[in-house]
Design brief:
The protein is of the alpha/beta class. It has helices at residues 3-17, 57-70, 85-98, 109-120, 135-144, 156-166, 190-199, 243-252, 254-257, 264-279, 281-298, 315-327, 357-370, and strands spanning 28-29, 34-37, 40-44, 102-106, 126-130, 147-151, 173-178, 203-207, 223-227, 237-241, 307-313, 330-331, 334-335, 345-350. It contains 13 helices and 14 strands. The strands form three sheets. The protein has a seven-stranded mixed β-sheet with strand order 4-10-9-8-7-5-6, with helices on both faces. The chain is globular.
């Protein structure tokens, strides 16, 4: 056995012992929040397709038309020949939607945050990240070479202490947070963060991956980042900002410069989905309404977004509860460390406009029978 294989097998054994090994499971997704695993039909409450637009006929038609007209791939980096018309149109619409001068589309949300943060900060700078921020925010900060500090989740007092203590030693400072936190479903106090940032001359990047179109945006940050793969049902990431910032990132964001452009079908699908978000407000409001129906039914804290965590503590408990729900026809995947802090394994319940009230009620009944309700 090679030393590489010995290392891999040893590491896998450690993951198995802690119930932390991940495995890919073939899943077929369909309309109306349906899914199938191992030949079993399930109702999925683990998908980020918050408006069900990945199966909307209008979105699919737009993707198909773009693929026929412009091909299956962009063919090159956008700075070479990959800057096709659907990408240009999508950026114009995203910027208008966010009230910004310009936008830049990346290959994914993870790539966007890697490129944005590392292009705007460097050695001698300060980056402050919410402790529950997404992995890519921390990865972008580490890649930048700036001093990287965590502030306690949504703790304005702690953020202010860190700014007062460290801002004066740094050339520039960035604050990174999320509008809706992906594993907890709560929202950042963005207006207050922006006020602190202004007082300390810091730039705020808000990751809006899980908020776009399904929660009221409230205050806007100078750097509004998000994804095309959740509410918009397609794939890719983006930044909306001033024209000067977008022009700078076009030349300096390595995860943009050195990767192939998004396929035309993905860009066209996102553009069609954005039309639906803007013209069908009742659809956009439905996921949060269903989430609040669910939390009221189980006596949980009122949902702030379409994401409701059922925190159970230990990894094995979360896995067992997920399996029990699957036996009853529900797909609610267990979330384990390191995605969430140790001791906070959970079921992450995600609501979609594609769910029916009856499906939500059935899930609530199943959970109330399998486990007494607990505060999220």
């Amino acid at each position: 056995m090679s030393s590489l294989d010995a290392f891999a097998r040893g590491a896998l054994a450690e993951l198995d012992a802690a119930s932390l090994r991940r495995r890919l499971v073939a899943t077929e997704r369909g309309p109306e929040a349906s899914a199938a695993r191992d030949g079993r039909s399930l109702v999925s409450f683990s998908c980020n397709d918050y408006l069900g637009l990945s199966h909307d006929p209008r979105v699919i038609a737009a993707a198909n038309e773009a693929q026929v007209r412009w091909g299956t791939g962009a063919g090159a980096s956008r700075l070479v020949t990959g800057n096709h018309p659907p990408l240009i149109a999508l950026e114009e619409r995203l910027a208008a939607h966010k009230g910004k001068e310009a936008a830049l589309v990346f290959g994914s949300g993870y790539l966007a945050n890697l490129g944005i943060v590392s292009a705007l900060a460097g050695t001698g700078d300060l980056i402050l990240v919410d402790a529950l921020g997404h992995s890519c925010l921390f990865a972008g900060g580490k890649l930048s070479g700036a001093e990287l500090l965590r502030f306690r989740h949504n703790d304005l007092a702690h953020l202010e202490v860190l700014l007062a203590r460290h801002r004066g030693k740094a050339r520039r400072a960035m604050i990174l947070t999320e509008r809706v936190f992906s594993m907890d479903g709560d929202r950042a106090p963005l207006a207050e963060i922006l006020a602190l940032a202004e007082a300390h001359d810091a730039w705020v990047l808000v990751d809006d991956a899980h908020g776009l179109g399904v929660v009221e945006p409230g205050a806007r940050a100078p750097l509004e980042m998000g994804t095309l793969s959740k509410t918009l049902g397609a794939y890719g990431g983006y930044l909306c900002a001033s024209q000067a910032v977008i022009d700078l990132l076009t030349s300096r964001a390595r995860s943009f410069v050195y990767t192939t452009g998004l396929p035309p079908a993905a860009a066209a699908a996102a553009l069609a989905a954005l039309d639906i978000v803007e013209t069908e407000p009742e659809r956009a409001a439905r996921p949060l309404a269903l989430a609040r129906r669910f939390t009221a039914r189980l006596g949980l804290r009122e949902a702030q977004s379409p994401i409701v965590p059922i925190v159970v503590g230990e990894t094995e408990t979360a896995l067992a509860l997920s399996d029990a729900l699957q036996a009853r026809g529900f797909l609610v995947v267990a979330i384990r460390p390191p995605t969430v802090p140790a001791g906070t394994a959970r079921l992450r319940v995600a609501f979609s406009a594609a769910h029916s009230e009856a499906q939500v009620e059935a899930l609530a009944v199943a959970l109330s029978e399998l486990r007494p309700p607990v505060a999220a």
